[in-house]
């Protein structure tokens, strides 16, 4: 899936994550993470973000995430929403994929 514009999903509330995705002018995936639980769960949060991007077939993207203790299901939902908005395909999500 191709990123066409900046997309955002999530809030700064407790147990949520704010995710902003934008096209990477270079090649590859870059993830910038700030989290209140980064020492304990930073690697798991990055894995959840990366797995979701791969499932959506996103290759060249910059992800900026500010986490407030979100569960994996919330992380995945926020990444999916931000990507779909950035790809301008908000109404085309295949719910069976997830």
TrEMBL record:
UniProt GO molecular function: lyase activity
Keywords (A to Z) from UniProt: Cytoplasm, Lyase, Phosphoprotein
Superkingdom of the organism of origin: Bacteria
Compartments reported by the entry: Cytoplasm
Assembly and binders: Oligomer with a subunit composition of (alpha,beta,gamma)6.
Family: Belongs to the CitD family.
Protein name, entry field: Citrate lyase acyl carrier protein
